[in-house]
Amino acid sequence: MLLTEFGKSIGRINQRSEGEIVKPVQVLLIGLGRVGTRFYEKFHLLGEDRVKILAICEIDPGHPFLASLKEDGIPVFQDYKDALSRWGSDIDIILDTTNIPSVKIDIRHILQESGNHHTVLLPLVASYLLWHMAAPDEELVQDHSNPGY
User: Fold this and answer.
1) If I label 78, which of 1, 36, 67, 135 is the partner at 20 to 30 A Cα–Cα?
2) Domains of the chain
């Protein structure tokens, strides 16, 4: 029930007034671990009119989920720097689920050096909040010791 209401809310957000549609939120997802894979599935269910996944970054070329991403037409990068270079300020939100502090530091540096003041690097703790909103009935074990900002 709540997930349905959440979906309806997103739909209202994407429609300003009669006939005027807001562009979808464009996301770069980094990491296909337990959290990243579930976020991909949730975003995919919302549809590209609400959330457009520009690309996924995953360092493991043998990750079992990569085949379905390619079937869905989602570009996959092993190095997040290549994805940032390709999409730049077209990215609205970067969702880094790796919980590797050096990755977040590097992304902040790249955004600053490139003058990208549009893209938001979502802190992991905000990802947890997003998860609770999108999937209130599904537990997400917060096993990261320091969610970082």
Assistant:
1) 135
2) 23-134 (3.40.50.720)
Six-digit token string for 127: 């990802």
Cα gap 74→95, rounded to integer Å: 15
105 within 8 A of 131, measured Cβ to Cβ: no
Tokens of 30: 């980094």
Phi/psi of residue 87, each to 5°? -100, -30
Query: At 139, which amino acid appears?
Result: E
Question: Which is nearest to 44 in space by CA: 89, 99, 7?
Answer: 7
Phi-psi sector, 47: left (phi>0), alpha (psi -120 to 50), beta: left
Q: Name the amino acid, one letter, at 137.
A: D
Strands 120-122 and 20-21: unpaired
Strand partners, 27: 53, 93
CA angle (34, 40, 46) in 5-degree steps:
140
For the entire predicted model, the pTM comes to 0.79
pLDDT in tens, 93-138: 999 988 888 999 999 999 999 999 999 999 777 877 777 776 667 7
d(CA 99, CA 144): 7
